[in-house]
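Batch manifest line 250
LIGAND: LZUJQKHR
JOB: complex structure
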Amino acid sequence: MVNIIITAPRGHMDGLIVKAACERDDIRIAGGLGPAGRDYIGKDIGLAAGLGREIGALVYDDLTKIIDQCDLVVDFSRVELSMEVLEICKKYKKGFLCGTTGFTPQQEEELLAAGKEIPMMKAANTSFVVNVMRKLLGIAANALGDKAKIEILDLHSQDKLDAPSGTALELAEEMAERSGKPMDSIAFHSVRAGDTPSSHKVFFGCMGEMMEISHHAYNWECYARGACDAAVYMAGHGVGLYTMEDVIGL
Ligand SMILES: NC(=O)C1=CN([C@@H]2O[C@H](COP(=O)(O)OP(=O)(O)OC[C@H]3O[C@@H](n4cnc5c(N)ncnc54)[C@H](OP(=O)(O)O)[C@@H]3O)[C@@H](O)[C@H]2O)C=CC1
Ligand SMILES: O=C(O)C1=N[C@H](C(=O)O)C[C@H](O)C1
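JOB STATUS: finished
ARTIFACT:
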C-alpha cells in the first residue's frame, strides 16, 4: 500500500487524481495540501475534490503537519506551490511526483537534482499514450534527421498559464536528442482557447511531403491514471530520478 499526499485537490488534475486513487486498492490518500485561506482547508479531501463523499483524510495548509504520514507527495498545481513542496520533500526525505508545468530552466534543474536526495519524478505528461508518442517521435526524428523541419502545435484551454506546454518541450527535447539537432531548430506554436483538454501535433515537413503525429486528450483522466501508476512505481523504488518511461517500461 502506497501512502500519498495530494496537493491542490480543488484543481482539475488533483481532483481527478483523488478520484482515480480512491478507485484503486494499492493507494491510500493520507491527506491533502491547499493554499492557506481556502475554504476547504480542514475539510475532507473527498469533499474538496468534488467526489461528493468523505474519504477520511483532511486537507491541510501546512505540509509539515502531515508529511510523516506519506511515502510521497503528488503535485499537479502551480509553480510556486510545487517549489515549496520540493523543499519540504527533500527535508523530510519523502518522494515527490511533480506534474506541474511552467518552470524556469533553473527551477527545472533544481527539481531534477532532487533525484540525488529523494525518489523524484518530474513529468509534464503522465499519459501512457503520450509517452508512447514521445518514443515514436524520437524514432522519426532520428530517421529523418536533416530531411525534415520539425514544428510542434499544442492546443489547450484558455485557462492554461504556460506556453508552449510542458509536453511540447519534453517532446522537443526527445526529438532534439535523437536527431542530434539543437532544440532551437524546432518551432513551437500554441493555441489557448475554449476548454479543449489538450492536443499535441508534431509536423515533420519534408520536400513534397509532410508527416504528422498527433495526440488528443478528450478529458484529463489519462493523466490521473498515469499519475497513480507513477506513484505506485516510485514507492517501490529508492532515491533516484524516474521518468514515465520507467513506469511504462518502454
Ligand atoms: N503532468 C501531466 O500529465 C499534466 C500536468 N498538468 C499541469 O498541472 C498543473 C495544474 O493544472 P490544472 O489542474 O489544470 O490547474 P487548476 O488551475 O485547475 O488547479 C491549480 C490548483 O492549484 C492551486 N494552487 C496552489 N497554489 C496556488 C497558488 N499559489 N496560486 C493559485 N492557485 C494555487 C489552486 O487552488 P484553488 O483551487 O484553491 O485556487 C488550484 O486548485 C498545470 O501546471 C498543468 O500544466 C495538467 C494536466 C496533465
Ligand atoms: O491542460 C494542461 O494544462 C496540460 N498540461 C500539461 C502540459 O503542459 O503539457 C500536460 C497536458 O498537455 C495538459
